[in-house]
Amino acid sequence: MARSVLVTGGNRGIGLAIARELQAAGDAVAVTYRSGEPPEGFFAVKCDVTSWEDVDTAFGKIEAEQGPVEVVVANAGVTQDQLLALMSEEKFTSVLDTNLTGSFRVAKRAVKGMMKMRRGRMVFISSVVGLSGSGGQANYAASKAGMVGMARSLARELGSRNITANVVAPGFVNTDMTAVLDDKLQDTIKQNIPLKRQAEPEEIAKVVRFLASDDASYITGAVIPVDGGLGMGH
Ligand code: NDP
């Protein structure tokens, strides 16, 4: 039987690529979307990860449709860049609320079913900047570093139940999130990447597929960089 998978923010960008990759591997894939139209070909539930009620309701619908979630990919995320001196507290906490607390809500809701099944895979989409830091991104980098600490805690807490928790740390990926950066900045970033180019979302998705597969049965608490070498040494 196909595994029940959930990808948050699976309506576009990296999340959509992950959803497609896992579906192609034979899983029953549900996605959440917050705005716009749901993507075609997936069981899609509207959900804002800053709301526990939304997350709980989304899981209920997904469980009814395709069974308890065995693989969860916490991918939904936002940036709100600003230099520290100019960054409002609201700008800091709202990024934390989506990226870090949102992932917590999703993992917390997923773990119930996983504990009953005595198996499960959690994959958290962090970022290279969670480890290396990034000027103007104190909120975003803090949220992404927090995901590492959280995932590693879950790896320890849930390992005896055969539930793994791993982190993927992408570098500079070709999505709407990076398209807003001006061309000059994009060129500068690319110059610092040993592979001298952006990743395509599919290159992140393939690593997530691996971490969710039987081939990764002995990997937990890992942080896998998929960044063309950008974060080497961190
Ligand atoms: P996009 O901006 O293209 O997509 C972001 C996704 O997250 C959308 O589906 C969006 O939904 C969803 N989302 C945002 N806020 C919420 C919320 N409160 N509740 C539910 N869903 C929400 O980003 P990417 O595809 O580039 O990024 C995906 C993940 O990868 C993010 O966590 C990001 O931080 C991370 N990442 C991206 C990198 C890059 O270079 N692009 C590099 C490293 C990490 P909606 O369509 O409704 O807005």
TL;DR of this structure?
By secondary structure, the protein is of the alpha/beta class. It is built from 8 helices and 7 strands; from the N terminus they run E-H-E-E-H-E-H-E-H-H-E-H-H-H-E.
Comma- or semicolon-separated keywords:
8 helices; Rossmann fold; binds NADPH dihydro-nicotinamide-adenine-dinucleotide phosphate; 234 residues; alpha/beta; globular
Molecular structure report:
The protein has 234 residues and is α/β, with parallel strands linked by helices. The chain has a single domain (4-226), classed as Rossmann fold (3-Layer(aba) Sandwich), CATH 3.40.50.720. 45% of the residues lie in helices and 15% in strands. The protein has helices at residues 13-24, 52-66, 89-117, 129-132, 138-158, 176-179, 183-191, 201-212, and strands at residues 4-7, 28-33, 43-46, 71-74, 120-125, 163-170, 223-226. Strands 3-2-1-4-5-6-7 form a seven-stranded parallel beta sheet, sandwiched between helices. Helix 1 (13-24) crosses helix 8, helix 2 (52-66) runs parallel beside helix 3 and helix 3 packs parallel to helix 5. The structure holds NADPH dihydro-nicotinamide-adenine-dinucleotide phosphate (NDP). The site of NADPH dihydro-nicotinamide-adenine-dinucleotide phosphate (NDP) has 31 residues, from helix 1, strand 2, helix 3 and helix 6.
Topology, please?
Blueprint: E1 4-7, H1 13-24, E2 28-33, E3 43-46, H2 52-66, E4 71-74, H3 89-117, E5 120-125, H4 129-132, H5 138-158, E6 163-170, H6 176-179, H7 183-191, H8 201-212, E7 223-226
Parallel strand pairs: 1-2, 1-4, 2-3, 4-5, 5-6, 6-7
Helix pairs in contact: 1-8, 2-3, 3-5
NADPH dihydro-nicotinamide-adenine-dinucleotide phosphate binds at residues 8-9, 11-15, 32-36, 47-50, 75-78, 98, 102, 125, 127, 170, 172-173, 175-178.
Domain Ketoreductase: 3-176
Family: Belongs to the short-chain dehydrogenases/reductases (SDR) family.
InterPro entries: KR_dom, NAD(P)-bd_dom_sf, Sc_DH/Rdtase_CS, SDR_fam
